[in-house]
Protein 1
Amino acid sequence: MQGLYSRLTPHFQRWDPAFAQRGTDSGHAVYVQGHDRGGNYHLDHAGVPTDVFWNDPLGRSPAGTPATQRYRGEWMPIAVLHAFIRGFDTSDNALSYVATVRQGEHA
C-alpha cells in the first residue's frame, strides 16, 4: 500500500521522523493485512475491522534485540491508514484500496 509518511501519527513515524517532515515528498510503501501473523483480527461488535496489521519496512529493531522482541509489524487504527492513503489520493476512491475482511471470513 502507498501513502505519505508525513500523514501518519507520530507513533507510526517513529522509524524515520526526518523523512516524515518531508511532507508531500514522503511517499512510502508498506505491507498491510487484516490480521496479524497469528491469524488474529481486531473487529468491532458487528464484525467490522477496526484495525489493520501494519508492517513498515523502515521498522528496525536495534542490533542484539532477541528474536521474540524484534519489530514484526503492529496494529494500526483504520483511520490512521486512511489518512496515510489519502496523502496520495484525496478522493473517496482512495479508500477502495484498503483491503478489509468481510464479516464471517475470519471464522
Protein 2
Amino acid sequence: MKISNSILKDVKWFCLQLNLKGISSFLGILLLVILSLNQLKGETPTPTSKFSIRSDNFLTFLQQPPEIDTLVFKRILFVNPIAFDTVAEAEKFIEELKNKPPRESSQSKLYALRWRQNGDYILQTLENVSQVWSPQVRLDTFAGRSNGIWWSLKGLGALTTDSNDGIYNVDGKPNSVYLIIKKLATEILRLGMFEMDVTSIKFLSEPKVNGSSLFSATSLKGTEIKGEIFTVSNYVTKIRYELEKSEGNVKGHEIKIEHVDGALNKISVSNKWKNNSVPALYCIFEVIKIDLVNSLGRVGTCDVGQFLSADDGVTLTKKNGDRYDKHGNMLKDQSQFKPNPYLNYIKFAIFALIFILILITSKRVIEKFRTK
C-alpha cells in the first residue's frame, strides 16, 4: 500500500499540533488507516482508473468522454498501399510491418487536447510536449470552443464566431471550418471510428468480460453499421465493424486498442477494403500524457482570452457573415478576411512570365552553342 508524501506530512503536522504524545500517536495511526482505506475504495480518482476502454464503460466513454484537462497525443497517418494484387502480397507486407516501423507521412503531428462534457474544447498543434498551452505556439491548429464562442488563434490574434453550430457565411456560402477542427479534435475520443455516430451505438447482447460482443450503430450519413468489440479481462482490445452501404472503397475498420497499467496507450486503425481481405494500417493515436479534470486540484478553461496578449486583435463573425472588432465596431472593409478574387490570375501571369523568360534564355543559350 502506498501513502503519498503529502499525506504523511499532513499527519505529521496534525500530530505536532497535539502536545500529548500518546493521543497524537493514536490519532495519527487512525488517520493513516482511514486515508488508506479511502484510497483502497477508489475514492481518490486517478487517470489510470478512468481513462481506459472497458466493456462496462465502452458506451459511456464514447457518448460522454471523461473531462480532460490535458491530453497530449501523437496522430500518425501512414503511407501504405491501397490495394494488393494477391492475398500473399498483402500478408507479406503486414509481416514486414511488424518487424520495422511503418513509413510515417508528413501528416504525423503532436496535439494537445482539453475537453469538457458540454462540448467545449481546445486543440493545439505542438512541436514538443513542453509547448503545451503556450500562447506563442500558434502552428497550423490552435482552436476551440468556450461558452458558445468558437475560436481560432492565429499570428495576429483570434478569429471567433458566436454561431451556435459554428457555421457562418463567407461570401454567401457556409463555412464549417470550426466543425472540421472539432471533428479532428474528437477522433481519439471516438477511438478512431471516424464515420460513426457514436451516440447511436447499441449492444445487441450483454457485453462480455472476456470474448466478443456484437453492437449496431449508424454512420454520420445515416447508413447502418454492424460490428463487435473484443475484450480480455474486461479491457477492450479490438473493435471491428463494417458499413452496410459504403460509397468509397473502404468497407469498414479494424481498430486495435492497447492499455498500459490500466490506462489507454495506443489506438491503431486499419482500413478494410472492398477488394482486399487484409486490413491495411491507416492511422495510429499514441497517448503521451493524460491529466483528467478529477485528478487535478486546478482546472484550466477553454476560453481564448487566456492566450491573448494586449497586441492581439479579436474578430467576431456573426452567422450572416458580418464581422466586428474587439471593441464591437463593425468592420466595413473586410478585404483582409477575404481572398483576392484576382490572386489566382496574378499567380498564373507570374508563372507564365517566368516560363517565357526561361524559354527565351534557353533558346539563346542553344543558339550560342550552335554558332560556336
Protein 3
Amino acid sequence: MKRFLSIFAAFLLILSSEIPAVSMTLHDFMEDYVRAADKYRKKSGDPSILIQMIKVVPNLALPEQKERWGEIVNQALSDQKPEASCATCHKEFKKTYKKEFRKREVEIPEELSLLLKKI
C-alpha cells in the first residue's frame, strides 16, 4: 500500500508540474509554428492545430495591444476563418511591432511544440 501511495504521489506531481515554455521572437513563432499549422490546414482541411496556435497569439502581445489582438482572433474564429486573423493583425500592428519590438522574446507554451510534431 505504501508503494502504491508513493507511486500515486509521484504521478500527481508529474501531472501538476508546469510544461516548460520555449522562448523565441514573435516572428519566429509565426514562421515556425503558425505558418506550419496553416500549411497543414490547407493540405489536410483540418484547421484545429491552426486554431490552437492562433488562440495563443493574444497572450504574446504587448499589454496595451493584448485586448485588440484578442478581438481580432475572436472575430476570425467566430467567422470560422482563423487564417483571416493574420492579415488583420499584420495590417494593424506589423509595421510598429517590427520597428520597435522585433527582437522581443516571447514565451511559447511547450504544448504547441507537441502540436507541431503532429503535423
Protein 4
Amino acid sequence: MITETDELMACSRAHIAACPTCTAVFTLHRSPTPHMDECGFESYTIECSQCGTTLSSIVDPTDETLLVSEVAAYNDVIKSRQVA
C-alpha cells in the first residue's frame, strides 16, 4: 500500500530539467538506489525523448540541484584537450 509519505518522498526525489540541446522539458525521477560515480556524485545517463541527445546528469550533494550536460559536448572538450 502506497502511503502519503511514500508519495511525498517520491516527489521530493523528482527533478524538472531541460535538454541543453533542444530545451525539451523532462522529469528525472531519482532512484532510491542511485549509481554513484567515481567522484561520489549520484549520476544518471538519459536520452532526450525529443532530439535523442544523450545527456549526463549529476545531483549536487550540497544542495540537491540536478546538473545536466550533453555527453557529446563533454566528449568534444576531452578530444580537444588531447590534441593540444
